[in-house]
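Standup notes
- DV: blocked on the single-chain target, sequence here:
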Amino acid sequence: MANETLTRKRLKTPNAAAIAGLLFSLLLMAAFALLRISVPADPQEPGSWLRTNSQTIALATNLVPFAGIAFLWFIGVLRDRLGELEDRFFATVFFGSGLLFLSMLFLASSFVDGVLIAFATKPDEMIGSATFQFVRAAIYATINVYMVKMAGVFMITTSTIALYTEIAPRWLAVFGYALALLLLFGSYYISWSFAVFPFWVFLLSVCILADNFRRKP
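- DV (later): unblocked, structure below
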C-alpha cells in the first residue's frame, strides 16, 4: 500500500507535464512554421508546391502526433493543479474543447498526409485536380475556422478557471482572454493566428514550471 501511494504521488508530479506543455508548444509551432513556408496561404493555389516541398511537409505532419501526446499531458497537469477545486461545468468545456482541438489537428494533418500519398502515386493527375482543391479547402477550413476557434474556447475556459482558482497568474488569464477573442473573431483574416495558441500554452507552462520550483522545499 505504501509503494502504491508513493507511485501515485510520483505520477502526479506536475513538473514533467509542465515540460510537456513546452514540448507541445515548440513542436506545434515548428510544424506550423514548416507548413507556412512550404504551402501557399491561398487555398485556391493549384498545388505546384507539392513537387518541391513534399519532404518538408511530411516532416511537419510527423511532428503533429508527438505534439498531440504532449498536449494530453498538459491537460493532465492542469486538472492535477485544480484537484478538488475542479468545477464540473468548466471542466467539461475545458476538457471537451481540448479534445476537439486535438481531433481537428489530427484530422487536418491526416488530410495533408493523404494529399502527399496521392501525389506520390499520381503526381500529374493530383496537381490542379478537383479532388486536390476540395481537400485543400477542407484543410484550410479545419485549421483556420474550426480548430483555431476550439483553441479559443479552451483558452477562455482555462483563463476563467485560472482567475477563480489562482492556478496561474492573473495577468496571464487576462492575456488569455484577449488572445482567445482574437482567435474567435479574427482567425479567418489573420494568417499568423495559428501561432497564438501554442504561444499562450508556452507561457502558461513556463509559469507553472516556475511555480513548481518555487514551492519545492
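- Follow-up: The chain has one domain: 16-210.
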